[in-house]
Design goal:
381 residues; Phosphoribosyl-aminoimidazole Synthetase, Chain A, domain 2; alpha+beta; homodimer; disordered N terminus
Chain lengths: 381, 381
C-alpha cells in the first residue's frame, strides 16, 4: 500500500479473484451488464477490475474493508498500523435506478438507505454515516422528492445512521428518468469478525432470514405490465440491527467469527449469491427446495411472470453461512427480530463438487443451480 | 450523537446555517436547482436539510468531518472519544453528469476522480479511498467506457488514491444520457488543521491558484453550439498534492491553521464560493478585478458566449483565505507546483459590509458581486 494505510487481512480473496479472471469482449453495454448475473461479473472482473485494479477492489466483495489510523503511530512488524491507533472500516456504494420510484412496501429512498446499510452490515461492521448523491430530471415534482426524502429520513432513523454529505445534479428533461440516487456508506468494526465469501467451510449450515422474491416480484407487478391484483409488498428494510443481534448471539454461543459468510441476496437473487460464495470458498453448497420459504402469492406471480424466485432480487433478506453448532440457536434468536421472523436453515456446505450450488428438489432429485445468465429484471433496484 | 461517535469541532457552522434558512416554494425541479447558485442553495437548505437534518449535514460544507474510533476506548469529559483511539476523517460525494463526456483537457472520468479528491483536500484531509458508482445507458460503447476507466486510473494514480468499491447499473436506452458517475471519497486528517468557510478573518489575504473559467468555457465550446476555434482546455486536475504542500508550508511559516478557508470554485464559480465564505464568516471579501487571472482566449470566448468568468466553473483551481503574514511566501511555494504556477493574491477580508463580496473594477469603482442567480451552465460537471 503506497499511502501508509493497510487493508484488512482479507488478502486471501485476491488470488482467487485473479484466478477466475474474465475476458470482456462485448462492444456495447446491454441491460444484462446490470443484472447482477454472469454478464455483470464479466463487466466487473473483465473491465472495471482490469483498469482500476488494487488489492481492496480486487476482493470484489460488496464492501471494501481497510484500516485508517494516525500515521504517527508505530508500525508493527506485520506492516500494519499500530492497532492501538487504527480503526477498521467498511466502505460501500450503490446507485439506485428502480422504476417505479414508489411501490408497495417502499420507494427509491427507502431502498437507497437500506441497500447501502445492508452492504455495510453484511461485512459485520456497524453502519454509521451515509452520503447521498441525487441526479434529478428537470421537471421532477417537488412533492415526490419530499416523499422520497421523508422515506430516507425514516429508514436512516430506523437503521440509526446519518446522511452526512450530499450532492444534487439536475439534467435536462429526457436525459434521466425522474430520479437516480447514489448512496455510499461507512461502517466501523467494533468486534473481531471475519466475514467473507471465501470462508464457507464443509459442514457449515446455510441460513436464510425469510421468504424469497418479494421485492423483485413487487416491482414487476407495480410496473403494471400485467393486471395482477396481489398483496405482495417489497421487503426493503435495513438489516443492520438483525445482524448486530446475530453477531452478539454468535459471540455468546461460540466466537464472533462462527458466522462465516453474510450476504444480502439482491440483484441476481439467492442463486447468484450462493454461486459467488461457492466459487470464492471452493466448496459445494447444497440447498433443499422444500425448505426455502416463498410466499404463495409470490410463487403464483412468478409463474405468471416467468420468473424463478431463486433469481429474483430481495432487499430485506440475508443469507448466513455459519458453524453447525450455532445454527439452531442463531435461527431462534433471529426469529425474535421483525426482519428474521421466518428465518430457517435451507442447506449445508459440502466439499464436492467445488464451486457448485446444488438443490435437492421436491421430487427427490438434485439439480445444479447456476448463476443468473442474461438479464432478468432491469432497474429492479 | 446517538451512535457513540462524535463530529469534529465545527459546530460553529450550525447556528449560522440555521439563521440563513431558506423556504423552498418551487413545485418542480428546474435546471437552476443544479446550478450551484441561489436556487440550489434554496433546494439544499430549504428541502434536503429540512428532511435529513443532523449536525454534520447542517454544516453544508463540501465534505463532512467526523471522528471514528474504538468504542471500548475511554470517553473524555467533552464527550469525545479518547483521542488516542480515534481518527478524524473527511467524507464527501459528487455525481458527475457532464456533457460532452470527452472534452479538451479531460473527460467525465478524470473529472469524477479529481472533483471528489478536491472536495476532500479542501478540508485539509489527505484523500485515501474513493467509491465509484456507474449508471450506464443501454448501448453505451465499451470503447468509450474503457477510455473513461483509463482516465480514472490515471487521475487516481496522480492523486495517490485508490478506487476500492464500486457499483454498476444499466438503464434502458433513453433513460439516461450515456454515462453518469458518482464518486464518494474518504480522507484522513494527519495534522491539526481547522479549515472552514466560517474562519475568514479581517485582514486575511485571498489567494487564487490560477486563471478562472477554463473548465466551463471549454465545456460550452465542446458542445459545438457555436463555431469557435480555440486552444482552451479544461483545468480538471486533482489538487491534493498542492494542498499538502500548502499545509506543510503554512506549518513551517507559522501554524498549520494559518490557512483559514480552502475551496475549489466549481459550480457557481469564484463569485458564488466567495459569497458562501462571506456569509459563513460574516465578513466582507474585497477582490481586485485587475488581479484576477483570466486567459485572453477565455475572456474572448466568455464575451461571445455571454458568460462572466467569475461565475464559470473551475475544476483545477483553489481559493485560499490565509493569515496575512503567510500570504506572500505561501504564493511563492504554490508557484512551484504545476497546478499553482499562476497563484496570486486577489483580495483581502474586510469587516464591513458583512456577508458581501465587493470587487474593485478596472475603472476604479467598486461593485457588489452576488451569488450566481438562475442557471448558467447545465451539466458542466
Amino acid at each position: 500500500m503506497t499511502n501508509g494505510f493497510t487493508p484488512s487481512p482479507l488478502f486471501e480473496r485476491v488470488e482467487r479473484a485473479r484466478r477466475r479472471k474474465h475476458k470482456f469482449k462485448d462492444t456495447h453495454i446491454t441491460l444484462a451488464h446490470g443484472s447482477g448475473g454472469k454478464a455483470m461479473h464479466e463487466l466487473v472482473e473483465g473491465l472495471f477490475l482490469e483498469y482500476l485494479r488494487n488489492p481492496l477492489l480486487e476482493m470484489l466483495e460488496d464492501q471494501a474493508v481497510f484500516e485508517v489510523g494516525k500515521t504517527n503511530g508505530a508500525t508493527s512488524a506485520s506492516g500494519n498500523i499500530d492497532e492501538r491507533n487504527s480503526t477498521r472500516l467498511a466502505y460501500t456504494t450503490d446507485s439506485y435506478v428502480v422504476t417505479p420510484i414508489f411501490f408497495p412496501g417502499g420507494d427509491i429512498g427507502r431502498l437507497a438507505v437500506s441497500g447501502t446499510v445492508n452492504d455495510l452490515a453484511m461485512s459485520g461492521a456497524r453502519p454509521l454515516y451515509l452520503s447521498a448523491g441525487f441526479i434529478l430530471e428537470e421537471g421532477f415534482a417537488v412533492e415526490d422528492l419530499k416523499r422520497i426524502l421523508a422515506s430516507m429520513r425514516a429508514a436512516a432513523e430506523e437503521a440509526n445512521v446519518q446522511i452526512v454529505t450530499g450532492d444534487t445534479k439536475v439534467v435536462q428533461k429526457g436525459s434521466a428518468d425522474k430520479i437516480f440516487i447514489n448512496t455510499s456508506g461507512i461502517g466501523v468494526f467494533e468486534s473481531l469478525v471475519h466475514i467473507s465469501d471465501a470462508r464457507a467451510q464443509v459442514g457449515d449450515q446455510v441460513i436464510l432470514s425469510g421468504s424469497l422474491g418479494d421485492h423483485g416480484t413487487t416491482i414487476m407487478i407495480a410496473r403494471g405490465e400485467l393486471e395482477l391484483e396481489t398483496d405482495i409488498a417489497s421487503d426493503t428494510a435495513p438489516l443492520n440491527l438483525l445482524v448486530r443481534e446475530m453477531l452478539d448471539e454468535a459471540s455468546r454461543l461460540a466466537a464472533g467469527d462462527a458466522i462465516h459468510c453474510l450476504r444480502d441476496p439482491t440483484r441476481g437473487g439467492l442463486a447468484t449469491t450462493l454461486n459467488e460464495i461457492a466459487l470464492s470458498s471452493e466448496v459445494c453448497i447444497q440447498i433443499d427446495e422444500e425448505r426455502i420459504p416463498v410466499r404463495e402469492e409470490v410463487k403464483g406471480a412468478c409463474e405468471i411472470l416467468g420468473l424463478d424466485p431463486l433469481y429474483v432480487a430481495n432487499e430485506g433478506k440475508l443469507l448466513a453461512i455459519v458453524s453447525p453448532e450455532i445454527a439452531e440457536p442463531l435461527v431462534a434468536r433471529m426469529k425474535e427480530n421483525v426482519y428474521g421472523r421466518e428465518a430457517c436453515i435451507i442447506g449445508e456446505v459440502k466439499a464436492e463438487p467445488q464451486g457448485i450450488v446444488a438443490m435437492r428438489t421436491g421430487f427427490g432429485g438434485t439439480r445444479i443451480v447456476d448463476m443468473l445468465v442474461g438479464e432478468q429484471l432491469p432497474r429492479i433496484c
